[in-house]
Task: structure prediction
Amino acid sequence: MYRDHTCGELRVGNVGQKVTLAGWVQRSRKLGGMTFIDLRDRYGITQLVVEADADPALVETATSLGREYVIQVTGEVVERQSKNPKMPTGDIEIKIESINILNKSVTPPFTIEDESDGGEDIRAKFRYLDLRRGPLQSALALRHRMAHEVRNYLDSKGFMEIETP
Result:
């Protein structure tokens, strides 16, 4: 199974569940033998943790991850010691049991975050990366919902949308 949850949906009610997530590595940090990874998909961010006493191969894989690597992880949802109220998933983290690198990535020329460090020119050149950022994702979702509503309204009034070959 590719994933059974998205990165934005897990909460304290999921503690104890074994889950599989997939997404882009937002950032990775090694603190006192533990490795923390922020995993992002279009639905949100979830913190992953690899403990110091984990399998050495797992620790090595976790420390080798770069920004924007595409990974799939399986692990147990645990309640975080230090909660992050700024994140919807800030009360939990995933204690990783396995990591599967789906695709490696060259470090992007700017950070894929709401407040990016890339200027307009560089973000335009790498538009496919820029479209992963939250503000642009929100704009695309709004555009989709608006077009959907207009089509539904016109359909209810008997209009037919035609695309000629």
The chain has a mean pLDDT of 94. Residues 12-103 form a domain with the OB fold (Dihydrolipoamide Acetyltransferase, E2P) fold (CATH 2.40.50.140).
